[in-house]
């Protein structure tokens, strides 16, 4: 049975090609050699496979199952400067009971908010089984001193966050200071305590697929419980191709270590058709073990409404308009 992500102390036990992962992270030079020694990404082949898997057709009972599974995987999100306690409580109520007209609808996986709203979300979700996720580390830009980022994490965990979504220092990563990024993830992981850690790469800013593969391995080596595509705050967020690449990374990491890591595409996934395409990617790339909200999530706000409308159509044979679902 796969375990959760490695702590820094366990990393020494993981081996790749006879060289321990601890050796790979012993210095900036060693980490650079390891990451740049990963196989290069065939961009044309990656995009072609993602496009091909996106053409798979799912009908009837399989579609109904996929819609419910997708609902259960959503991190229902509000990350706006105008967020209020009332808005967060309303979002929490929707996460627990997405469709008031149909109590068979599954609950979402989590509600994702800023740290100052984590206590409000925790109180609203108490006893529901829906997790509280909180962005941290100076989200979304990550431009703050490490002590400020760690204080951000501590505050969110103390307020009741079950999960922390951190952003990496893209400037450090793109300038090749991989050890700085690695050590920052380690430090954040240590502050998370019981909370699971999702590491956001902001793939739209990493420029190349090779960089996304390197960031994926860097995050996993540092102890991420999830690797996440994006903040949802830039022009290019989750795509089938970059998510496929990250799914390959977690699959390969588990093959070599026995440790299973989750994946969270975020930003730009708005329709049931989109969500089902991503679930096909999961099944065909990483496998059925990842078809569970403990290992796969959607970072989304508008996706839930479309899933609910499609669910209603399957149930009643009639397509309900947007007025039949609550506006977040």
UniProtKB/TrEMBL annotation:
InterPro entries: Aldolase_TIM, DeoC, DeoC/FbaB/LacD_aldolase. It comes from the Bacteria. Keywords: Lyase, Schiff base. It is an enzyme of class 4 (lyase). The lineage of its organism: Bacteria, Bacillati, Actinomycetota, Actinomycetes, Kitasatosporales. This is Deoxyribose-phosphate aldolase. It catalyses: 2-deoxy-D-ribose 5-phosphate = D-glyceraldehyde 3-phosphate + acetaldehyde. One of its GO terms (molecular function) is deoxyribose-phosphate aldolase activity. Its EC number is 4.1.2.4. Belongs to the DeoC/FbaB aldolase family. DeoC type 2 subfamily. The keyword Ubl conjugation does not apply. Pathway: Carbohydrate degradation; 2-deoxy-D-ribose 1-phosphate degradation; D-glyceraldehyde 3-phosphate and acetaldehyde from 2-deoxy-alpha-D-ribose 1-phosphate: step 2/2.
